[in-house]
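REQUEST
  id: r-88c1
  op: predict_structure
  target: Outer membrane beta-barrel protein
  payload:
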Amino acid sequence: MFKKLSTLFFLLYAVFSIAQEQISLKGKVQDQIEFPLTDVSITIGNKADSTKITSTFTDENGEFNLSLSTLDKPFYIIVDDPIEGIYTRSFNNLTQNLDLGTIVLSPQTYQLKEVLLTTNEPVVIKNDTIEYNASSYKVKPNANLEALLRELPGVDIDDDGKITVNGKEVNEILIDGEPFFGTDGKIALENLPADIIKKIQVSDFKSRNEKFSGEKSRSDKSSINITLQEDKKQGYMVKGTVGYGTDDRYEANIMANYFKGSRRLSLIGSSNDIASTGLATGAGSFGRGGMGKRGGNGITNSSSIGLNYNDKINDYFTVGGNYNFDHSYNKNDNYTRQENLLPDNIYTTESNTISKSENFNHKFGSTLEWNKNLTKIYFNPSFSHGTSSSTRDFDSQSTDENGELRNESFGSNKNESKNNGFNSEVTLYQGFKDKSYLNASVKASIDDRNQNNRINTSTLFYNSDREDDIRNQLEKVNTKNNSISADLFYTYPIADSLKFAVGTKYEYNYNENDNQTWEYDPLLNDFIVRNDIFSRYNEMKQNKVSPYAELQLNKSKFSGTLRAGSDFYNQENYGFYTGSAYNLTVREMLPALQANLRYKAGNNNLSFNYNYNTSLASTTQLLAIENLSDPLNIFVGNPDLDPNKSHQLSLNFSNFDRKTRQGINANFTYTYNQSSIVNYSYVDEDLITRSTYTNVEGNYRLNGNLFWSKQLNKAANKLNLNVGLYSSYARQQAFRNSQLYTAYNSSITPSVRLTYNWNNYITLSPSYNLRYSKTNYYNYTLDEQTNTVHNFSLRSITTWPKNLTWTNEFSYNNNSRMAAGFKRDFFLWNMQMMYSFFNNKMEAGVKVFDILNQNNSYTRTISDEYIRDERNNILTRFVMFSVTFNLNQFGGKSSGSNMNQDRPRGEGRGMGRSGF
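RESPONSE
  id: r-88c1
  status: 200
  body:
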């Protein structure tokens, strides 16, 4: 008994002693400008074998505090921020509390010689930047940038290619900080291979002036910067695909990239008839980069070629240039049924249209940037030239509320056009020793378009005394849209965190529209008689001067701006119609107000924006000149219009916690139209709509978005969860049959997407979204209209056995309220198998689009004045066989396209030893 008690007391004493010997190790981490760094990784490791003892992260104040037992052996501490760098320090032991004080990180990296640190954190946060580690996400071999983006938590890409990150729209994509065939990123999405990407950085979009001056962003949109792997910046990469399938479907493309340090030269070429707008890789691209896309309206053949060059000549001078050529040919067969809403009845229009169009476009662009000391200059000129031709054969019938035919139209239109455009931007930033700076920017745009429209139509009226409208005309339309703007402002610091700016912005716009219509003479077989009723000319010259003053606040947690000024408008409107001249000059002085405030504390970001927006009515809205181009829709201007005036408020909250890998973003936008220009229309007994314009007060729109993402990892298994909720509510007022109507439009769209990766062999990604919309009408014969659209999809990628990739994409779509004769639901199943050989330098495969042959393009649109159901031609089932080759050589070594196929993307993180 005594021995047992002795043993118990001894154990209690040992536990008590250990508890008493807990040591505190604390410190604070900041960057070179003394800004606290949040979510910096703090790791304590055993120096003998590099094993980790414990770890933590810094809090919102950049501080950390570790509690651990005494250490009687050498150990090290690693302070790691993925952007600011790594700090390391060794100790012989730890026997008492230790305060490391303030640790200042810089982009230079320090490492212990005895320790090799491997960091592969999927997502990290640095101030306003979310950084994704590309190697942490599983994509199929030879996937492009778009496929990789779709795997990232918080990222969503719709069928039109619009990218949102945590609910914020992306409007710029850069490669290593430079444009790739322009900043819109469409070509990069389709063409940049995922396996050469190191990091994807998402930050608030900045204007050129904000980038130069270092000011914080005021935009509610995002920018993406793609960082390439360092070992992929010395060498070349060539990839090509040829494919042929059923119904003579085809695709052919080539992509070549040459890298030498900061110099990058890229060539792309593509030709296909499977509705792909960019490089349709053999790895799978149906439609716009995604196998599940239903394709655009009609059947499209497209070809393109592009050349892009970027280079940093020296430490100060960077140049870039690009050329693009695009050709497309589209055929479509459209059927539309539209219910037109009136205060006391509904009339229906049904139409059939067969159309063909062909477009040729050339675009040249270049960028030059000089950045030395306190002087920064940016110059971006571009030129475009395009030609197009189209034919349109149509017939339509309109029936009244009793089902009686009131009018019928049929005929054909042929159009040929040519346009030339020039755009240029010059931005200058000059800093001074007192930390003040001067910004100046000039933008110019010239657009000239010439069109010849061959019109041969007949409009017949029934149960009416009105004469039928028969036209055989040639319409020659010349339009010019030129503009120039200049912005000059000076910013002076009046305190450490407060700046004052004063400036003036000038804008000049010139618009010209010359429409000459000629009647066909059957005797001379030519168009020689000018028709004054259908010919018209108008032009607009607008000068706008906007002086302003601005306060800028920049604290550690708070930042904001307040800008106040005035807009002085002087708009001269001139028109000539049926031998009469029309002159109207509009002069207005309107307030100009902008404000934004941002708060950042740790992972929490909160921003508020306010804008007061104004604009004048256009010349066609102001001048009382009739537009009789469409015999069933006639417009005339109103010279008594007031300007558009609106208030816009937006609120955004975001939080991403790296430790829990959980993110949330919520934003709310409210726009109130103090004065808006709307249609004032009247429909007569022949169902001809005559419209002018008027002002109303009280139209508004509310938009709210909520997005939540979560990432779970367990061993080699990964689960990404994305949940979104989009909603809107709007009031739209206008006049129909001289009566004011009101339509309240509301919609809600919840969505959920899961991505599960099992041991890097199979990826499953189910998703579901629902869109419910409802419109309530007042002063209409219709009280309300609702519609529900369901979409479910399931995507799977299997990479077993070795060298074989099997991809399936299955979706179900249901539209609850399609009109009779329109299919309400359909299934879409696409499948692809690719096999790689010759050390991954060759691939052969087969893909099947729309296996069930159910793809369709039935759509419903509900607006404040009509309900429209449409059916278009669309890409349907085909089978295609393809062969892809990949020739890569980086750093003097040749490799296959998928460098990590034997060791798939997304292996775990950890610390290893350099050898003991």
